[in-house]
Amino acid sequence: MFVSPPYIKCPKCGGNEYGVLMINSKDYRRRCNGCMYSESYKLPALSKKIVYIDQNALSNMMKSINPETEAYKKGNLDPFFKSLFELLDRLNKYQLIICPDSINHYNESVSSQFYKSLRRVYEQLSHGTSFEFPETIKRFQIHNNFLEWLGENPQPITKDNVIHGSLNEWQDRLIVSVDMGSQTEDAVGNNDYKNRLHENMISVFERWKTEKNRNFNDWYEEERNAIGPAILRTYVEGFLKYSQEGYNESTLNFMTSFVSVLFTELKSVLIKRGYNDDDALLKIREYLNSDYFKETSYLKISSMLYASIAKSAANGRKNPPSPGMDNDIEVISSYSNYCDAMFLDKECHSYLNQQPLKKELGLSDKTFSVNNKEDFLKYLQSILDDCPKEHLKLIDEVYGNDWGEPFIEMFEKINED
User: What percent of the chain lies above the pLDDT cut of 90?
Assistant: First the structure.
């Protein structure tokens, strides 16, 4: 292992070769290159802000520092995005924030010719942290909501429950990245899935345009009333097919699906309470049709966002949302409860600042977009301004006084395949 700067005076031999050998999650170790003396030093606990950056912003940040992109060559990108990357990277290196990546980032990046560059940027800022899949977070929320409906008081879902990796741990200098090599296959599958979702959005949008006599609450109730029965119907159809056909590729996909795993978890709760299988299924059906289920956080957020789109269509909007809208809504409905700040698509951000979403969801104060981009920079700068001087001094001692310099040169020696 290599000893790195910054070097200080060795407490044993007195030489100025006492450098940093390794940085662990809660301590770091120094070793002297002269006498080989080494010692570990404890590091204080951290409480990093969780900041989510949407795909469009990640893409623009990448273009702002990657000489291989046309946008960089033409110099026509908003300078905001380079400033944003520099500030995010600095705060990340100062151990003040973390920007977890997600399967949504991967899905939106994998089809791009700059996939590797996009991945390099979001891994630079996530530093090994990733949100759980949206389906998993939805299951967590439904599970807790179900326990509350049954009269229990479950432990709240925390950031640690939904984010993998060293969330509040001191970071090593190095970032380890593993590519599973399935980019081409994933790109085809994701494009097909995204196209199907967008075709459905176009169809529903055209219907919404004709519904001039409906109001926001009508569409909101329609959306949230549909989810429980849809989950139940999917489970019943999948289980019947499995019962008839046994194990095959189709039924195996069902048995490992969000719906099947969710039913297994809810049934397990009821079986422990003394229910038999049949009565447990009846109880789950009752729950999925209850008003209490409809208050599950992700369901409420997504239903309000779709209702906002419906309202805009009925009020004269001509064109449907972009193909990425379903992904944007999934991100907000799944991750927003566990973020301190989110930089989002401007359309969704606009909806979150309109009533009744602003009052009912309470997300407007921690969400940003290009509509209020300077406010986002101010928010990030305030994190740095509020940082104790002792913390920044410790960063210099552990990592060196140039550690906070943004890594804007990351693409200078990288060529895309």
Answer: 87
